[in-house]
Amino acid sequence: KSAALMAEVVRSEGGLLLKSLIPELMNLAAQGPAPAEVAVQTLRWLPEEITVSGDDMSSDKKRVLLSALLESLPQVLPFLYRVLEQHFASYLASSKAASAAEAQLHGTVVAAVLDATFALADWAPVVSLMNSGLLHACAHLLTQPDFALKACEVIKAVSSRKQANEDCAAFQQAMMAVFEVLVGPMKALLESGYDRLHETELGLRMCETLGIWGHEHIGTLGDGQKLSVYLQEMLAVARHASYHVSNLTLTFWPAALRALGDRHKAVGRIGRPEGFLAALLEVAAAKIERNPRWGEGMYPDTEFDTYQEFREFHAIFRHKWMEIVKQATQQEPLTAIGVAGRHVEASLARMASAESDPSEGA
C-alpha cells in the first residue's frame, strides 16, 4: 500500500518528483528485503496510468510522466537488475541453508522485480530492456519454479512488441536476442517434458510465448539455421497430442506462411527450409482427421468437460487447420498433392486391415 501511495503522489505531480525520488528509492532498497520490495513496487506502480486506460490523468500529464519515466530508464533498469541479482543470490543461499523465512523475504523481492519489469515491458524501449540484462535473467529464472511464470510473462510481453520509435536495425537485433533467450529454454522443455506440456501452466505459457514471438518477428530470422530450429520447435508444439497445446500455434502459422511466402516472391528463392511445408501439411492432415468413434461416451475428457464443449472447440480448431492447408497448398501445390496422396493410401490400408480383421474396427 505504501508503494502504491508513493507512486500515486508522483503520478499526481506528472512525473516532476521522479528525478529526485529515484536516488531515494535506491537508498531505501539498500536497507534490506522489506524496504527493497517497497522501492521496487513503487517503480512497478509508477507507469500504471500509461499502461491502463482511464481518465484519472490528463493527456498532458501522461506525456510528462512518460517522458520522465523514459529519462529515468538508464538509472531504473540497472537498479532493478542489481536488486534482482542480489536478492536472488540471497534467496538461493537461504534456501540452501534451509532458512525458509529468510528465503521467502528475498524471494518476495525477486518477484517484485519481475512485476516491475513486466510493467515496463509494454512501453520501455526493447533495446534498453535487452541491454539491461533483465531478459537474460528472466530466461534463467524459467528454471526456478517459484519465479518461472512471472519470468515467462515478461518474455511474452516483450515478444509481442512491435517496432515503434526505435532504430529498425537495433530493434531487430534486440528481438533476435529475445529469440535466443526464449529458444534455449523452450528446447529444454520440449526435450524433458514434451508429453506433459499440457499439464503445467508454464508449459502452456512457454508454447504461447514461442508462437507470439514468431507471429510478430519471424521475418528477423533470415533463411538459415535459426529459422529451421524455430520452425522445428513450432512444429513440435503443433504436433502435440493435446488439443489445447496444438491450438496455441494456430494464430502463428498463417502469419508465418505469409511472411515466408512474401520472402520467396521478393528474392526469387525458397524462403523456408526444405521439407517444412510437407511437415506442416502432415501435421495438419492428422489434426483435421475425425475419429469415427467420437461421441458422448468417447472424447478427450481430460481436456474438455463435456462432449458438446469438445465439438464446439473441434469445429473451430479443424476449420483453422483447413485454412492453413489452403494457404500452404497455394505455395507448394505438388507438395500438398503428395501429402494428400499418402494419407489417402494410409486410410485405404486401414480400411482394408479393418475388413480383414473385424476386431480392429470394433
Would you kindly provide a written description of the structure presented here, covering whatever features stand out?
This protein has helices at residues 2-12, 18-29, 33-45, 48-51, 59-96, 100-121, 126-131, 134-141, 148-159, 168-193, 201-217, 225-239, 243-247, 252-267, 276-288, 307-331, 333-356, 358-361. It is mainly alpha-helical and 362 residues long. The longest helix is centred in the first third of the chain and has 38 residues, at 59-96. The protein is elongated, with a radius of gyration of 25 Å. The relative contact order is 0.06. The model has no long low-confidence stretch (mean pLDDT 86).
Q: Which class best fits the helix and strand makeup?
A: mainly alpha
Cα end-to-end separation: 64 Å
- Provide the helix percentage: over 70%
Give the topology string: H per helix, E per strand. Answer: HHHHHHHHHHHHHHHHHH
- Overall mean pLDDT stands at 86
Count of extended strands = 0
Strand content: under 5%
Radius of gyration from CA coordinates: 25 Å
Largest sheet: none
Identify the overall geometry. elongated
Number of helices: 18
Low-confidence stretches are none
